[in-house]
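Objective 1b. Sequence-to-structure analysis of Serine/threonine protein phosphatase 2A regulatory subunit.
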Amino acid sequence: MLKQFLSRLPRKSAKSDAADTAGSNSVNNAATTGNGIQRTNSGNASSGRSSAVKKMSSAVFPASVIAGIEPLLSFKDVPNPEKQNLFISKLNLCCVVFDFNDPNKNTAEKDLKRQTLIELVEFVGSGSAKFNEPAISAICKMTAVNLFRVFPPNYRSNSTGGETEDEEPMFDPAWSHLQIVYDLLLRFVTSSSLETKIAKKYIDHSFILRLLELFDSEDPRERDCLKTILHRIYGKFMVHRPFIRKTVSNIFYRFVFETERHNGIAELLEIFGSVISGFALPLKEEHKMFLWKALIPLHKPKCMGSYLQQLSYCVTQFIEKEPKLASSVIKGLLKYWPVTNSQKELMFLGEMEEVLEVTNMVEFQKIMVPLFRRIRCCLNSSHFQVAERALFLWNNEHIVSLIAHNRQLILPLVFPALEKNTRNHWNQSVLNLTVNVRKMLSELDDELVLTCESKLEEEEANQRAAAEKRRLTWERLENVASIQPMTGNTAVLVTPATAAIAC
């Protein structure tokens, strides 16, 4: 079985095939004992078994590439000067990728590769690994071969931007290998012995771009690993930070304006929540553009609920960094405010409360009129949860203080909606909350409330008078039309009674 595994790797010559066949039994025994394979450059081999293994190994792993070290040796069985070469040999061995759709296929080879990957992780974690350029190249090559793949269309055909409560997440059958490769890559990136000047030649823009493409995986375990690794790369490779921000922005643009399908939006936003908190002040124009052109439009897709928490955190982080951005953020929320989607409207009200909590008085005054016009509509929503959530804004002390300081403008906007609720809203919970809000406003400024009441009564009287005037006007027109003789093709207004007589 091991021969089949090794035969997948490129061979040097046809002559080596015979050596491979001759040494297959020796390799199997060595895989079991862990210490039966010798170095290929040993000139003192004393048995036919080790000689056959040596020939096979030199054919499969050319000495010019791996310095003549057998990949199946244990790290503890070679001297320290040779461990680096053995490390590269094992990495080359793990470049073989297996098909996990059939669990009964290549089971022995899969187990051997898994054990080799575990050895690599332990070796990197022990701190013994010294990452020279060949080792860095080998690690990047091995991770690229194992991780970078294109998801088939049916793999994400039902994707709507992350799993919802009703959807079962899909798990990659190759995870037993992928998880260890991710662990190795994470330990490699976070290693203190890794020199970024050398590593950036291999962890380049192409590598990072392919890594970001993997965020569309439907396996939540894979996205979680990617999130941690990308965050570490962003922190360690400063030269790549602008490229990462630009590429993530492009992912957001395509998601919002083209596909509305991506599984990793929440994870990418979670990374940027930490990144934004580290932005230096004053904020660069590039960072503000990321807020306006990438984060705010993310409120548009229907599946916003799958990443709402992370998105709200990123937005509030920007406002905490620079309070002047609050009015722009609220304008953006009002721009994308849902009109026919009640569940999404509930999300917007919740996020609006979080934004208002970090909004100062100056910025609040810039947008309070359009904001409370929208809240007034929510108060009168026939969907009781929307009306209820809008009334809950008065439970927030900071928002109440903002309203109190600007009550001369805000109360006349919302009072008619509150009065309408008390008269004819169908839900008892909304009625009770409305009464409590009215009582709070009366305690805040009873005189202003009375003024609003009288003004509302006056407006309603005027509306009734205007409605009566319209009714009388139409009645006169109908009477005139009913007695006007028809001449030629003259169009006339006929009442239902006139039409009945005509018939």
